[in-house]
Design brief:
single chain; alpha+beta; six-stranded mixed sheet; five-stranded antiparallel sheet; 16 helices; elongated
């Protein structure tokens, strides 16, 4: 400890400006590294959590891609509605599945006033669970609604507020969608069905990212409600089961696709046409992949920048230790002549460099802690739509602090030891002769 204090006093008395600049450089390097690790860890964690909170969600269709990149669905379906039970019973990774229908409308009327919709979905109860659509007013869809083909509708909270001012005000209101041409019976005869739906529930609006990627509807109806009354429910389920949305715990889309295809082939034969994709019922989208790549590129770039600046700052420790080693060359040789080991001298320089690095970490951590919220507010808007998914109230990451501190101490100790190595390896007699 005494030698450490003497070394500190000597360095400070000989070159106070250099000592101060070195400490500032190490502190700034520590500050930038700690800040960069904090920001990237939090952004990556929050964004990945948001993007993957429902696992991998895929669309599955009995059909193939046409030349324009649209789904050419096989009708009638080559599988029946039992596919849902097969997917969940034959695998450990398929959490849930729901039939989805492309019988959609993009507007509805209330008391003669028409309102446009971005999208609408005909589906079943499991759809709400797959996308974690919590009911904020009214009641949830039930299996009975599917069995009876109930003329009920569920709308997003955003839609309810725009049309009815609040979610509660929407409950019990009758709406009328445009008429649909629906096939009836086993013949080719079709008819235009114009009916009214009663708003039974309002669900929490999905994030804009989820809506864009998966085409989550502003309005949801039981898929059986689109059929004319009197149609056998079992027949309807088999007829409309050719397209599903599936939630999987797999971490890879390719692995999930392989699992789904394997289950279908085992239960329905190898000549089934299967298309599996990430996106909406309309087709594939690279939106989710682009978002993940954006976060990854940002994380890697910022962390590399932080590491480079940290390395540059720790070179200041190398400079200080080099001056100390050269100025004490004769003294070090004398200490070795009196019995001091090489390791002891190296440890002395290592301890000094570690102390400098640790002091820089303390100052840098304090600066990072108090500036972190402001820096986060500045950076978040750069992510565009992703910025809405990041909680600005998130706390300082102490794990990132520990990772940063470990790297700074490793490199600070390394650069602090290098200058003294040639000195301790020098011939003692030659070193003592030096004036």
């Amino acid at each position: 400890m005494k030698k450490f204090i003497i070394m500190l006093m000597r360095q400070w008395s000989h070159s106070p400006i250099k000592m101060l600049l070195t400490l500032i450089a190490v502190s700034l390097g520590s500050f930038i590294l700690i800040l960069s690790f904090n920001v990237t860890d939090i952004i990556q964690d929050q964004v990945e959590t948001k993007l993957n909170q429902n696992g991998i969600i895929l669309q599955v269709a009995n059909g193939s891609w046409d030349a324009e990149g649209n789904i050419d669905q096989t009708k009638p379906s080559q599988w029946d509605f039992s596919i849902q039970s097969y997917l969940q019973s034959d695998t450990d990774t398929i959490v849930s599945s729901a039939i989805v229908s492309n019988y959609m409308f993009n507007e509805f009327s209330v008391d003669g006033t028409s309102y446009d919709l971005r999208s609408s979905i005909a589906t079943e109860v499991a759809y709400f669970d797959i996308f974690d659509l919590e009911i904020v007013a009214g009641v949830a869809m039930t299996d009975e609604d599917i069995t009876l083909g109930s003329r009920k509708v569920w709308i997003s909270e955003e839609t309810a507020e725009i049309v009815f001012s609040s979610a509660e005000s929407a409950i019990g209101v009758w709406i009328q969608p445009p008429g649909k041409m629906i096939g009836r019976g086993m013949s080719n005869k079709s008819q235009t069905v114009v009916t009214q739906y009663i708003i039974t529930g309002v669900y929490e609006s999905p994030s804009e990212i989820s809506r864009k990627v998966y085409g989550i509807g502003d309005l949801i109806v039981p898929y059986t409600s689109l059929l004319p009354s009197g149609v056998n429910t079992e027949v309807a389920k088999n007829k409309m089961s050719g397209m599903l949305v599936v939630s999987s715990t797999e971490t890879s889309i390719d692995d999930a696709e392989q699992t789904i295809s394997q289950v279908i082939y085992q239960n329905y034969g190898d000549d089934i046409d299967i298309v599996v994709w990430e996106g909406s019922m309309e087709g594939e989208t690279s939106y989710m992949t682009d978002l993940r790549q954006t976060v990854q590129v940002f994380t890697v770039s910022v962390n590399i920048l932080g590491l480079v600046l940290m390395l540059v700052s720790t070179l200041g420790v190398f400079s200080i230790m080099l001056v100390e080693a050269l100025s004490r060359r004769r003294q070090i040789c004398l200490e070795r002549a009196l019995g001091a080991s090489k390791n002891r001298i190296i440890k002395e320089f290592w301890s000094w460099s570690m102390a400098m690095s640790f002091l820089g970490i303390v100052i840098g951590a304090i600066l990072a802690y108090f500036t972190f919220p402001t820096i986060l507010e500045i950076i978040i808007p750069l992510f565009g739509e992703l910025s809405n998914e990041i909680d600005l109230g998130v706390g300082f990451s102490y794990i990132a602090l520990l990772k940063s501190a470990a790297l700074i101490l490793i490199f600070g100790g390394f650069f602090g030891v290098i200058p003294v190595l040639p000195v301790v390896r020098e011939n003692i007699a030659e070193g003592l002769k030096e004036e």
